[in-house]
Automatic annotation (TrEMBL):
This is DNA helicase RecQ. Pfam families: DEAD, Helicase_C, HRDC, RecQ_Zn_bind, RQC. SMART domains: DEXDc, HELICc, HRDC, RQC. InterPro entries: DEAD/DEAH_box_helicase_dom (IPR011545), DNA_helicase_ATP-dep_RecQ (IPR004589), DNA_helicase_ATP-dep_RecQ_bac (IPR006293), Helicase_ATP-bd (IPR014001), Helicase_C-like (IPR001650), HRDC-like_sf (IPR010997), HRDC_dom (IPR002121), HRDC_dom_sf (IPR044876). Residues 221-369 form the Helicase C-terminal domain. It comes from Methylobacillus flagellatus (strain ATCC 51484 / DSM 6875 / VKM B-1610 / KT). GO terms for cellular component: bacterial nucleoid; cytoplasm; replisome. Residues 523-533 have a biased composition (Basic and acidic residues).
Length: 611
């Protein structure tokens, strides 16, 4: 009970929160008592508190292993704001700064130290840790982004395989492995590779109820994107993901031409440009980052209000992790994606043309198929995501396109048989465009060249138009009845799963695509009260003044604005309008150190606008 009380006091007085969330309290108490833990918790769920509080309560220093330089910097900035002695060691530090960190460590002055796995595994650093253990103690080892240990995961880091040495050399020190995305095979591999067979597993819900998921068909993607940004996020920070570096740069340049503050980010950019763009995104308001998936791991910016995918991600895990970078502060955020059949073909071509072993290709194909199934689904998006991660959800979330504007379905059995028959009779080597021309009875040059006007399927599909047939083919690919033949230059061919439908043994229901798939801002899509509350304050002079004060303080200290206060804390200040420091101290996210440091400054702003 004593540890429980001490943890609660720390949570309130240092971190400024009145209560733990979900499994946090159980995890903290388990690790404080010396137990090992595997923690699966969604992005924004509060994983860092699960090792930060035990590091403060146990004797010695907490060692946090992280592969993410940006995250280390953010976390250390945030801890120092709370008056906690924290530091990091990674390749971004010059020799002088690294030496000062080592000296502070050797004097027992640090309570939390973030370290890159490459540095941790060096014999000299392990020797230093043994010395620290004898003199001051090691509170715990936290292994963040633990999915990096999995060779089947989306972010494999070979150095993570060596981290079993921590248990071998420091058997008395508790270990806590944490990740936001791990399906069952990845979870099992984390346990096996890190020797966590006896660790207690804490699996939180993967649901992010504040994220609104929407998936639309590509129909002039740039126009759709512009409609989405203008109607819903005119001044917000967000991330736009593209598949290729070229598309990243072209999209960022085009957005700048349209008057948006957009920056590119991909691994091919000069390192100094990449770093400068990332710093601007973290430290300024309303920046849009256009990026490949190289961007985002370890980005701790809580007020990202939207994540856009202009191309399909590779898997549900990738989609979940990337969209999870939105709304980490708990306020409403959007995950908005557009895709088309061309995306599916491109992804499969990239996969099939790679040097990846066949076993891995097969797994990646299954992951891509699961993502396509999600895109084409008529069911609740939150329910579909959770089902993928082995969790139940009742559906009817009120926070996705399918629940807000239910999709009509139609019996597509006859149309599907026409399409499949056309694929078969034309030799299983043509793409959807040519097949649709056959079904519509068009006499194009290509149809004449191959004499396809003589096929029995020529002209039999005139009851549907070009867009409707495109939808049929896309859904047949998504449901696995058609696949792309890489040796046939991306032509479509039948799979075994198509046989029962062709034989008349089964039927298929397809989603009816809306007549206009441009971004919508209907009343139904603005149903959330918290979203409305956030949107309503955007032009409030007091809200703008509070944000301006936060930015001024952040620039003085050279930290991102959210390190001072999250948007959710500012929103509470705006709504509560505290008139004294004790009243200010009751607001969530304002602990003793932040109250002493910033309380008066924000009270002055409130007083100025009270008259």
């Amino acid at each position: 009970m004593q540890a429980n009380t001490a943890a609660q006091q720390l949570l309130e007085q240092t971190f400024g929160y009145s209560a733990f969330r979900g499994e946090q309290e159980a995890i903290v108490n388990h690790v404080v008592d010396g137990g090992d833990a595997l923690v699966l918790m969604p992005t924004g769920g509060g994983k860092s508190l699960c090792y930060q509080i035990p590091s403060l309560l146990r004797p010695g220093v907490g060692i946090v292993v992280s592969p993410l330089i940006a995250l280390m910097q953010d976390q250390v900035d945030a801890l120092r704001q709370l008056g906690i002695q924290a530091a990091f060691l990674n390749s971004s530090l010059d020799a002088d700064t690294a030496r000062h960190v080592y000296q502070a460590l050797m004097r027992g002055e640090l309570k939390v130290l973030y370290v890159a796995p490459e540095r941790l595994m060096t014999p000299s650093f392990l020797s230093t840790l043994h010395d620290i253990q004898q003199r001051f103690g090691i509170a715990l080892f936290a292994i963040d982004e633990a999915h990096c240990v999995s060779q089947w995961g989306h972010d494999f880091r070979p150095e993570y395989r060596q981290l079993t040495v921590l248990h071998e050399e420091f058997p008395e020190v508790p270990r806590i492995a944490l990740t936001a995305t791990a399906d069952t095979p990845t979870r099992n591999e984390i346990v096996e590779r890190l020797g966590l067979e006896h660790a207690r597993q804490f699996i939180s819900s993967f649901d992010r109820p504040n994220i609104r998921y929407r998936v639309a068909l590509k129909n002039n993607a740039r126009k759709q994107l512009l409609g989405f940004l203008e109607s819903e996020h005119p001044n917000d920070a967000g991330i736009i993901y593209c598949l290729s570096r070229r598309k990243v740069e072209e999209t960022a340049a085009w957005l700048k031409e349209q008057g948006w503050d957009a920056l590119p980010y991909h691994a091919g950019l000069d390192a100094t440009v990449r770093q400068a763009n990332q710093q601007r995104f973290l430290r300024e308001e309303g920046i849009i980052m256009v990026a490949t998936v190289a961007f985002g791991m370890g980005i701790d910016k809580p007020n990202v209000r939207f994540v856009v995918h202009l191309d399909l991600p590779k898997s549900m895990e990738g989609y979940y992790q990337e969209t999870g970078r939105a709304g980490r502060d708990g306020l409403d955020a959007d995950a908005w994606m557009v895709y088309g059949l061309g995306d599916v073909v491109n992804m499969r071509q990239l996969l099939d043309g790679s040097d990846t072993p066949e076993e891995r290709k097969r797994l990646e194909r299954q992951k891509l198929d699961a993502l396509l199934g999600f895109c084409e689904s008529t069911a609740c998006r939150h329910q579909a995501i959770l089902r993928y991660f082995g969790e139940q959800h009742p559906g009817n979330c009120g926070q996705c396109d399918n629940c807000l504007s239910p999709v009509d379905t139609w019996n597509g059995t006859e149309a599907a048989r026409m399409a499949l028959s056309c694929v078969f009779r034309s030799g299983q080597r043509f793409g959807a465009g040519h097949l649709i021309d056959i079904l519509l009875g068009k006499t194009t040059e290509q149809i004449k060249r191959f004499n396809h006007q003589s096929l029995s399927t020529f002209g039999i599909g005139k009851a549907l138009n070009q867009a409707q047939w495109s939808s049929v083919f896309r859904q047949l690919v998504a449901s696995g009845l058609l696949s792309t033949d890489m040796e046939g230059y991306g032509g479509l061919r039948l799979t075994e799963e198509a046989r029962p439908l062709l034989r008349g043994e089964t039927e298929i229901w397809l989603r009816s695509d809306p007549p206009d798939v441009r971004a919508s801002s209907s009343k139904a899509e603005r149903a959330s009260r918290s979203r409305e509350a956030y949107n309503e304050v955007q032009d409030d002079p007091l809200w703008l003044a509070l944000k301006a004060k936060r930015l001024e303080l952040a620039r003085e200290q050279e930290v991102p604005p959210y390190v001072i206060f999250h948007d959710s804390t500012l929103l509470e200040i705006l709504n509560q309008k505290p008139g004294s420091l004790p009243e200010m101290g009751r607001i969530s996210g304002i602990g003793a150190a932040k109250l002493a440091r910033y309380g008066d400054a924000f009270l002055e702003v409130l007083e100025e606008y009270a008259h």
